[in-house]
Design brief:
Elements: H1 2-47, H2 54-66
Amino acid sequence: MNALLASLLKPLLILLAAWFGGKKAGRDAAKIKELQSYAETSKRIDAVGPVPDPDAAAEWLRRRAER
């Protein structure tokens, strides 16, 4: 009886393990993509130097908002 039950449950357990493994891999991939995007954004922010003229910076922001 135990052998029959084990032979019936084994494929189900294999499918469940693959399904849960796939879900975890998907979450991990999404997290990696999010962190890479964050790192890229941080690098772009850090690459911008200070603007010595505040009026020029304000004008640049106004023009950018009009796009």
